[in-house]
Write a structure and sequence with these properties.
Elements: E1 6-9, E2 16-17, H1 19-32, H2 40-46, H3 51-58, H4 65-81, E3 88-89, H5 93-102, E4 106-114, H6 115-125, E5 138-141, H7 152-161, E6 168-172, H8 175-184, E7 187-191, H9 198-203, E8 209-210, H10 213-222
Parallel strand pairs: 1-4, 1-6, 4-5, 6-7, 7-8
Antiparallel strand pairs: 2-3
């Protein structure tokens, strides 16, 4: 069995259910252009590669770059003012993180969401876990160059935490996370409660998929 002392988590679909607020943000943008609204299931299928790609997928096919640029601006304004309307941690996440932190595990977060949004959400929902110096291991994307599946932010989180590849595991809910872990040269444990189901994740190469937080906690503390 392999055990880890450093745990780097994805955010959306892994720690937090952000689907409702993301859907509202996208549909706010679409309404401003009088475009057809999208369902939550559609938005779920678009999530994973960051907001620029989310909006590209949600906007009608063939819209020009100017509309996409304006859509990004409108989304950013609306979403940052409505970022916690319906977003909540998944069942058991807060207690799991407290237990892991209390037992000495080093914990980081790497997301394709914008960096300021990631830090705001982590401070609000997990302030007792990510505070002070520990917030230095919480990263959101600052551009396409470090957006997953790029390993740059995962490697930076490991550097901040003082961790090696063989003692670090990434925990995520998407094929993007699987590819990111591969690119970083570290193991991954996927979760089946997020925006992609277990069958899909296994079809993309996931070897271990936790069904709930109790199972994930056992995998992280007892070993894979």
């Amino acid at each position: 069995m392999k055990r880890y002392n450093t745990l780097v988590f994805d955010l959306d679909g892994t720690l937090l259910d952000t689907l409702g607020d993301l859907t509202d943000g996208v549909n706010h943008v679409l309404s401003r252009f009088n475009f057809e609204q999208r369902t939550q299931d559609e938005i779920r299928s678009f999530i994973g590669n960051g907001v620029p790609t989310l909006l590209r997928r949600a906007l009608p096919v063939g819209v020009d770059d100017g509309i996409h640029t304006e859509a990004l601006r409108l989304f950013g304004e609306f979403y940052m003012s409505n970022i916690k309307n319906s977003t909540l941690p998944y069942d058991g996440i807060q207690n799991m993180l407290r237990e892991l932190s209390g037992n000495g595990y080093k914990i980081g977060v790497v997301s394709n969401k914008k960096d300021d949004a990631v830090k705001e959400l982590c401070a609000y929902f997990f302030g007792d876990i990510f505070n002070g110096e520990k917030m230095r291991a919480v990263f959101g994307a600052t551009g396409e160059h470090n957006r997953k599946p790029s390993p740059l932010l995962v490697l930076e989180a490991m550097r901040v935490l003082g961790s090696d590849k063989d003692e670090t595991v990434f925990i995520g809910d998407s094929d993007v996370d699987i590819r990111c872990a591969e690119n970083a040269g570290i193991d991954i444990i996927c979760v089946g409660w997020g925006y992609r189901n277990a069958d899909y994740l296994r079809s993309k190469g996931a070897k271990t998929v936790a069904a709930d937080t109790n199972e994930l906690l056992k995998l992280l503390t007892i070993g894979v």
